[in-house]
Every structure is written in structure tokens, then in C-alpha cells.
Design brief:
Two copies of one chain form a homodimer.
Chain A: E1 6-12, H1 16-27, E2 32-38, H2 42-50, E3 56-57, H3 61-65, E4 70-73, H4 80-87, E5 96-99, H5 105-111, E6 120-122, E7 124-126, E8 147-150, H6 158-170, E9 174-177, H7 180-206, H8 210-218, H9 222-231, H10 235-244, H11 246-268, H12 272-291
Parallel strand pairs in A: 1-2, 1-4, 2-3, 4-5, 5-6, 8-9
Antiparallel strand pairs in A: 7-8
Helix pairs in contact in A: 7-9, 7-11
Bound molecules: NADP nicotinamide-adenine-dinucleotide phosphate (2 copies).
One NADP nicotinamide-adenine-dinucleotide phosphate binds next to helix 1 and helix 10 of chain B.
């Protein structure tokens, strides 16, 4: 058997993504010698233990990271600064600190200042997930065939970056590198804005007068049903994503708003060519996604 | 075996919904004595014949409806006025004219004026469908467990309405009656607005500078992927729905816009309570949908 990538790997936060990593590591034994699980939520830590997700369970993150050669932050991005500040003095020299956060500029802004010399910080974002949360929501093959994007920081040890790439590839993901700002723009349009819209339209429906609201729920058709699925996602995780990718999200929102206004205007004035054209174009995008197997 | 509901039933338009009705009728033999299929698209009519969807295939709708005791319009709602005008003189006394259109006020506006005395017009809308179109997109169990909404016109023969209800119930649907204006408002929020939004965001993504666009497609995450699925729907059908449910759609759009602006404002000012609150509320809606088994 090949050398393990990490002797002692700590997952801080054992929710949907943390538990999925733990599950994936079971499918690929030998990748990690010892998997340590840390979470401030005692119920989640206990549940992780019941599910046998790791080899060791340590509530206190500062204790957990001591002697670890790998640490992955798997909590909502708003908690990263506090966690980084707390664990920094306890990180072992030569160890790698990584994360799975959905925003990358904010993560670098919040974590990097605390990273001690001799520790390599490698920001990463596995682009896979469902609307479920918590340790029971772990999906062992979640990363299979999906992308994991790395946004390496200049001057960081290339060996560390390669190790994180290898880690995700072992769990079945394809990896790519890009700048953090670019990452945040791409994610704003493919993920963050769709979520913001889905959350919003559910609220709009819920605000309708009582009689209509009940029928909205009763007769929920395809479109709305799909939106509510997205909208069932974790409030804290998404709140943190929105405020931590504010600039890119607001830019994409404002582009979307203009386009939606133009579409509404075409509906108002019966500009059928415009409407048909826009729909045809969306169809083409869907076709491209199917062709490149992302749908 | 019980009496058939219709001796000669004509489906005008053999696309996704028409072909699904034809498929469902095969699952429930004896419901209709003779199923006649009509479509102006010779390829679709030929394909329907190859698939053996009906008992008779008649391109010309006026010829098809002669001697029929039931006719269901299954074409995009924008074509209803023209078809109604053409077939009206050929409709048999005592026959029932119905439809599957996604908008109901416009359908009544466009069809009712042409309906001859002695013919009962029963507007209906089976709330089931996918993003696919054409005769190959027929799904025999599409209506199973789904709603079919009827918006009966005052003064129309109750026996005719009951017959259409029985028809849809036989195909597995639950039926409900409501006013056409109410139908159009409910549908605007649960289906038409979600589609308008999905079409729009695909365009917004496609407008991004070339480099980002490619990565948008390459890295399409959950949110966007789900939106493109909705957005792959038929351009003509949806164009017709939008302009024929203009008032309700624009009202719902304007409510949604206000709510989305408020959400964007909360993101800009870091109002995390507001954001979390809205997301929690969407989650609750999803939960309700699951509880009443519409998700
Ligand atoms: N879900 C997705 O689709 C997805 C996809 C890619 C990346 N991500 C990223 O993955 C990360 C985790 O998301 P998730 O979906 O796994 O969320 P989750 O299911 O809610 O799990 C987060 C876990 O971290 C715990 N936690 C919160 N604050 C903590 C702290 N300060 N110290 C230790 N533990 C803490 C949570 O406990 P409590 O529940 O008690 O707070 C929970 O057990 C986020 O950064 C997110 O942006 C998510
Ligand atoms: N798809 C859904 O999710 C859904 C759900 C519920 C209700 N509906 C309603 O069902 C109806 C049909 O939708 P669909 O999805 O089945 O569309 P579709 O798959 O595009 O089928 C429509 C069929 O009607 C033909 N057609 C068009 N104009 C015609 C005319 N004047 N005379 C005869 N045939 C004509 C079309 O041929 P061409 O392709 O050559 O035009 C096509 O074969 C619409 O009114 C829609 O609002 C749809």
C-alpha cells in the first residue's frame, strides 16, 4: 500500500461536507492514517461517533490540530476567522491547512493573517453538495466526477498544493486551479445567485394572501418545486456565503435584474420574438451542459 | 367493461402533453373507443403513427373533429384562437371541447366566442410536464397523482364538466375546480415566474465575458444546473404562456423583484438576521411541500 497522504488529518466541522469527506475516505482506505473529527456542536460530534465517521473525536479544535499534518475547515465560512485565530498557535510546523469554503477571497482574507510561518494554507472548494446539512447528510460518493477548485496563494509551497490536489483526486474529484477573485465571480453566477433567487421566490409565494398561499403549496408545479429544493439549504451556511461574496454576488444580481426587467418588459409589450429568442438561448446552454456532462 | 367516456376523441397537437395523454390512454384501455390524432406538423403526425399513439391520424383538424364527441386542444395556447375558429363549424352537437393549456383566462377569451351552441367547452389544465417536447416526449404515467385543474364556465352543462373530470381521474390525476383568474394567479407564481427567471439567468450567464462563460458551463454547480433544466423547455409553448398570462405574471414578477431587491440590500449592508430569516422561511415552505407530498 502507498504511503498515506496524511498521518493525522483533522476535519473541523462534521456537517454535510465534513461527513461526506469522512465517508469518501472510507471508500478509499489508506489515504489518511488517522482521521480526527472536531465540531463545537456536541450532538453532531456524538452523531459522528455513532456513525463511526472518524478514528478520534475531539470537541476542542485547538487540541484536535496538535500534531496533525493536515487540517481542513468544513464549517460555514463566517466561522473561519475565529477558528483560524484559535488554532493557529497549535498548528504543527510543516502541516497543511485547507478548507472547503464556498467563497475564496473572504477565506483568504480571514484565514491567511493567522497562518504561522512553516504552515501551508491551501484554499480549496469542492463543487458538490446537496440541500441537506449535518453529519447524517454525508454522501460518500459526493465528490465523484465533480470539480474541486483550488485557489493557491502566491509563494505557498507547491508540494502542499499538489498534496491537496491529490487528496481530492483520490476522493474522485477533478481539480483545477484559478485565482480567488475569478473563483468568486464564477461561483456567484452558477451557485450563489441561483440560491439567492430560490430563497427569494419562496418568500414571495409565502407572502401571498392566505387563500392563494395554500393553493401555491397544494399545486406547486415543476418550476416552483425545483426552486424550493434549492431553497431548502442551510441558512447559516448560505448567509455566510452571501455576505462573504458580496461584491461578485451583487454584480451578478444587478446583471440578472436588468435582464429580468427586459424580459418583463417584453412580456408587457408582447415582444414575442425577444421572448422566444431568450428561451432558445437558454435551451442551448442546457444542451452545452449536457454535452460537457455537467447536467 | 364499462362504457367508454368518448367514442371518438380527437387530440389536436401531438407533442409532450398530447403524446402523454395518448400513452396514458393505453394504460387505461376502454376509456376511449377511438383515439384520433391531429397535428399540423407532418413529422410529428408521422412519428405519432410510428409510435402507434392513436387509432387514426388526420392532419386537417376540421376533418378530424367531424363526428367526434370529444376534442382536446394540446397545442401551444397562442394557437387556440385560430384552431377554435377553424374547427368550430365542424364540431358535432353534444360534443365536448376541452384543452390542456397552461393559462386559462386567455384560453376562455380565445376559444369561447367560437364555440357553437350545443357544444360544451370545458377548460382544463393538467399540472404535469417536463422540459421535453414533441411526440417522443410522451410519458404514459405523467398525470399519475398530479393535479388537473378545471376552470368551468358558468352555464356550461355539468355533465360535460364531470366527464372531463372523470377522464383525468381515469388517467391518474386528482381534479379540482377554480375560477380562471385564480388559476392564472396561482400558476403565475408556481410555474410561469420560475420559468421566466430560469430563462433569464441562463441568458445572464451567457452574456458574461467569454472566459467566465466557459467556466460557468464547465463548473455549473447545483443551483445553476437545476435552473438550466427548467430553462430547457419549449420556446413557443412558454412564449405563448407568458404573453397569455401577462397580468398575473407581471404582478408576481414585480412582487418578486421587490423581495429580491430587499435581499440584495441585506447582502450589501450585511444584515445577516434578515438573510437567515428569509432562508429559514424558504426551508419551511419546502418542508410543507414534502409534508403534503408535492415535492
Ligand atoms: N452544502 C454545500 O452544498 C457545500 C458545497 C461546497 C462547499 N460547502 C462549504 O462547506 C462548508 C460546510 O458546509 P456544510 O454544508 O457541510 O454545512 P453543515 O452541514 O451545516 O455543517 C457545518 C458543521 O460545522 C459545525 N460548526 C459551525 N461552526 C463551527 C465552529 N466555529 N467550530 C466547529 N464546528 C462548527 C456545525 O455545527 P452547527 O450546525 O451547530 O453550527 C456543523 O456541524 C461551508 O463553508 C460551505 O460553504 C458547502
Ligand atoms: N409542457 C408542459 O410542461 C405542459 C404542462 C401542462 C400543460 N401544457 C400545455 O400543453 C400544451 C402543449 O404543450 P406541449 O408541451 O405538449 O408542447 P409541444 O411538445 O411543443 O407540442 C405541441 C404540438 O402541437 C403542434 N402544433 C402547434 N401548433 C399547431 C396548430 N396550430 N395545429 C396543430 N398542431 C399544432 C406542435 O407542432 P410544432 O412543434 O411543429 O409547432 C406540436 O406537435 C400547451 O398549451 C401547454 O401550455 C404544457
Amino acid at each position: 500500500m502507498a504511503e498515506p497522504l496524511f498521518n493525522r488529518l483533522v476535519l473541523i466541522g462534521i456537517g454535510h461536507i465534513g461527513a461526506s469527506i469522512a465517508g469518501a475516505l472510507k471508500l478509499h482506505p489508506g489515504t489518511v492514517e488517522q482521521l480526527v473529527i472536531s465540531d463545537t456542536n456536541p450532538d453532531h460530534l456524538q452523531r459522528a461517533r455513532e456513525l463511526g465517521l472518524g478514528d478520534d473525536y475531539v470537541a476542542d479544535a485547538t487540541a484536535a490540530v496538535t500534531n496533525a499534518d493536515g487540517v481542513i475547515l468544513c464549517t460555514p465560512v463566517g466561522s473561519f476567522a475565529g477558528i483560524a485565530e484559535a488554532i493557529a498557535p497549535h498548528l504543527a510546523p510543516g502541516s497543511i491547512l485547507s478548507d472547503v469554503g464556498s467563497t475564496k477571497q473572504s477565506v483568504i482574507r480571514d484565514v491567511l493573517p493567522f497562518v504561522p510561518k512553516g504552515v501551508s494554507f491551501v484554499p480549496a472548494h469542492p463543487m458538490a453538495g446537496t440541500e441537506f446539512s449535518g453529519p447524517d447528510a454525508g454522501v460518500a460518493d459526493l465528490f465523484e466526477g465533480r470539480w474541486c477548485l483550488l485557489t493557491p496563494i502566491e509563494g505557498v509551497d507547491e508540494t502542499a498544493t499538489r498534496k491537496i490536489e491529490q487528496f481530492w483526486q483520490t476522493l474522485g474529484a477533478r481539480t483545477a486551479r484559478m485565482g480567488a477573485a475569478h473563483h468568486d465571480r464564477v461561483l456567484a453566477i452558477v451557485s450563489h445567485l441561483p440560491h439567492l433567487i430560490a430563497f427569494t421566490i419562496c418568500g414571495t409565494a409565502d407572502d401571498l394572501a392566505d387563500e392563494t398561499r395554500e393553493e401555491v403549496l397544494e399545486f406547486a408545479a415543476t418550476g416552483f418545486r425545483d426552486f424550493t429544493r434549492i431553497a431548502a439549504s442551510d441558512p447559516v451556511m448560505w448567509r455566510d456565503v452571501f455576505v462573504n461574496n458580496k461584491d461578485a454576488l451583487l454584480e451578478m444580481f444587478s446583471r440578472f435584474s436588468e435582464d429580468a426587467q427586459a424580459m418583463a418588459r417584453a412580456v408587457r409589450w408582447g415582444d414575442t420574438d425577444y421572448i422566444e429568442d431568450k428561451i432558445k438561448r437558454s435551451r442551448k446552454i442546457r444542451k452545452t451542459l449536457i454535452d460537457i456532462k455537467q447536467a
